[in-house]
Each structure stands twice: as C-alpha cells, then as structure tokens.
Fold this protein.
Amino acid sequence: MKNRAIALIITLMMGTGVTIFNYTGEDVVLESGETVKTGTLPKHLTKAFKKRTLEKPLYITFHHTAGNKNQTVESIAKDQIKRGFAEFAYHFAIYEDGSVYAVNDIEETTWHDSGQNTNSIGVVFVGNYETYLLSKEAYNSANQLSDALCKTFHIIGIRGHRDTSPTLCPGENVYKQLKQKLFY
C-alpha cells in the first residue's frame, strides 16, 4: 500500500510541534483512522520515478533549493519538471517556519542525488543556505524528521549533498549547523 511509510513518519512526528503537509498524491490514513488529505503537484507527462525496496540500508541526504525561501512546493516542482525531472525531486521539503511537506512516497526513487538515489531519502530546505541561516524551527523539524526516519528505516548515515557530489548544496550555513549534531 502506497504511503505506509509516510503514515508512520507522520504518526511519529505528531505531538512534536512540527506541522506536516501531505503532497504525495494520495491521502494518508493513520493508525488512528485519521486521514491526511493530499495536495497535488505537477508531474511530467511521460517521465516517472521508479519504485525501490525499503529493506536495504538508506541514507538521509539534505539539500537546499538555492532559491528564494518563499518558493512554494508547486513552483519548485514546475521548475524541476522544466529542467527534465519527472516531478518534485525530493521526499520531504522543510520551510523556514519549520513546516514539513511530505512530497513523495519513500518507496519512490526520486532524482535528488545522482548515483545515490536508490539508497537515499532526499530532504530539501527551501531557500539559499549559502545566504540564509537555518532557523531554529527548521533545524528542529530536520531533527524530528531525521529521528522519525531513523526509527522507521535502517538509516546508515545522515549527510549533505556535498558529501556525495561536487556541489555547495545544502549550503554552507546548513552544512555547518547540521554537521555539528546531525550528520554521521
């Protein structure tokens, strides 16, 4: 069943003060019976992400959009599709106010880290973190999301995109803040 993992992540994050939005394309039904309705995002007409098994060890890889922190998930998806992506390229997006958007099912192999997509969960901070500092709300959400993912999956490391590719991503400011306490 699609989004079982997302349902578990949402359940684990309830009560942490983090607001979670569902944009996975399918409603998520929690164990309590509560339904988290989905929003819709644009998708490429002919391209699609492949499915993967979740039994293998995974990494959490942090990114930043390197754009304006007021971008919407819809505008990010449209831009990524124009650049040749199948749809929104990450599993989760975190905004400065700490809100978390579940954007793709964990079983989807999104295109966020070339050569590492099959073994990585992509989390993107919306904004340019070469310029901005990470807010305490966004940091708290990243920490809560990482904890929930580690409780749900066999996570073998938490890293920045720059740890796997020649890029500044997730931005120097995020990288410094997360490396101190989160990356391993």
Notes: The chain is about 25% helix and 20% strand. The CA atoms of residues 12 and 147 lie 9 Å apart.
